[in-house]
Here is the input.
Amino acid sequence: MIRRLASFLSLVLLACTEDAPAARDAASVVVTEASDNQDAATVPDARVSDLTIEEISIAANGFVFDARAAGPIDGEPVLLLHGFPQTSRSYLSQLAALGAAGYRAVAPDQRGYSRGARPSDVSAYAMLYLVQDLLAIADTLGFPRFHLVGHDWGASVGWATSVLARDRVQSLTALSVPHAEAFFRAFDDPRSCQAEASQYIATFSAESAEAMFLASDAAFLRSLYVGISQAEVDARVAFFRDGAALTGGLNWYRANFRMDGTRPTLGPTSAPTLYIWSDGEVSVCRDTAESCAEFVTGPYRFELLTGLNHWLPELGGDRLNALILEQLRAYPLDP
Here is the structure.
C-alpha cells in the first residue's frame, strides 16, 4: 500500500534516524481518564481485576492522538495499530493481557480517527505520513525501540515501518493483512482469488462511500462486524456516525490504492515477524497469506487460527494473546 516509495524513502529515513528522546515528555502525554471500570469490563479472556486501561493523549507529528494504554510505564514497549473500521478499542483484550504480563502496551487511534489528527487533504493519508505518525508517537512516548502489533491497515503500517525503520522495530506481529508485495503479486495473478476478494476496495475508495456506510441506520457498517457483540457494534457505529472519522478511515484507501498497475516496491523485512491469518478471512486469500514468507528475511513464523473471521483482535481471545506474548518473549529488548 505504498506509492512511489523511492520518492519519499529519504524523508522516512530522516524521520527514522532522528534521535528519539531519552525519556517521556510528560507535557506531551496526558492521561485523561482511568477507565478500568468501563473498558476492562468488556475485555474477553483476560484477567483484568487489578488492571487499569488508561485513556491518554499523545502530541506527535503536529497532531494530538487519542490512545489507550496499559501496563507499567517502564515495561517493554508494544505499539498496537488498529485497522478499518476500528479504533484502539479493538485492542482491549490485548492491552489487558500485555499490561498484565508487564509490557507497556499503547494503542493509538491513528490519523483520521483521532479528533486531533484529521487532515482534510486525501493525499495526507499516504503511507509515508502514517509511518511518520507512528515514529513520532514512539518518540513522544520515549520508545527508541518497540514491538509492533498491527491488524488490517495497522498491519500494513507495521510492515512498512519494519522495513523503513528497521532500527526502531524489535519485532512485528501482523494480523490478517500480509506484506504489500505479497498482496499485489497475488492480486495480479489470475490463478489467485485475491483480485476477486479485493473488489470491495473500489467501493470503499468511492467518493460516495460515506453515504453507503451510514444509510439506513448504518446498516452496511453494522453488517461488517460479524461476530462482535451488539453492544460493541453500537459503540462503533456511534463513533463513526458523524462521518468525520469514517472519512478519515476511508481516506486510507483513497490515498494508498491505485488499480492502474502501479505496484509497491517495499522490499523484504528483516524484523522478527509473526504473521497470523484466520481461515474465516474473506479479504486475504490463503495463497496470498502463505506467500508472505517470501518477503521476510529475518526469523519468520506463520500461524493459522481456525474458526475465526477477520476481526482477530476482538475475537481471538486467549489464543491470539498467547501467540503475541510468545513473539514478544522470543525477541526481548536488550536490558
Notes: The two ends are 35 Å apart (CA to CA).
